[in-house]
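Hey,

Quick one before I head out. I ran the complex with GLP overnight. Inputs first:
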Amino acid sequence: MEVVILPDGDAVADHAARLVAELVRSRPDAVLGVATGSSPVGIYRRLAAAVDAGELSFARAAAFALDEYAGLPPEDPHSYAAYIAGHVTGPLGLDPARVHVPDGNAADLAAAGAAYEAAIAGAGGVDLQILGIGANGHIGFNEPSSSFASRTRVKALTRQTREDNARFFGSLADVPTHCLTQGLGTIMDARRIVLVAQGSHKAAAVAGAAEGPVTAMCPASVLQFHPDAVLVVDEAAAAQLTLTDYYRTAYEADHAKRGTHGFPPQ
Ligand code: GLP
């Protein structure tokens, strides 16, 4: 696992956006895994600006969202379908026919999960998965105790996650209790993982993800088994890591000196 510690959220978004842009430039029909929440917003803004400037095109790319609230139709402004439409599909100029969000409003959620797995496989799998991380270490909506072998399925949300996400809704009571989320096994099938985290409220989760132990109590710790996972974090989110000197030295050697950091890529 590569851990990149950068000064602030802007630098985190710059670096992660660069990784996405480099992929799409080398492979215009790339399949992206797209996260929701506040963490990746800066990535999407930078990519959209590059598209607007004519420096990048997602016209041939495809995207799969990680998760959706159960019981929310795509028209609901709180749905992740609405988030993806507003932050990803439109701004990046993706073909809506190639953008997929789990159908959390399906009558048969188990069947919808299986159909989502089939759609990802049918697209050839995810090339690069963008991830945020919950304060309790969840990725997607895979809450603590999730199976490392799990596939897209219904999950109950923890109270902490519902409280954390209540800021997007009117009140805690309005936050759905369940979701349809890619499993940890689904996420681990992505060929590359780029996880971004900003802020001190993510520090414990980031330390658990990067430095373990590997445990279902911190679902993101499964990424230690991934052959190409990058954690891009700001100083506040890095505060509980122990190997920070090592990560900084490795980053300087691998990126900063060669100028392969920041956004946009040259
Ligand atoms: C949400 C989403 C995750 C997201 C995480 C952190 O509930 N299901 O995909 O990464 O929690 O959210 P935020 O980036 O807003 O802190």
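The helical segments are 9-26, 41-52, 80-92, 109-122, 159-165, 184-188, 203-211, 244-254.

Talk tomorrow,
K.
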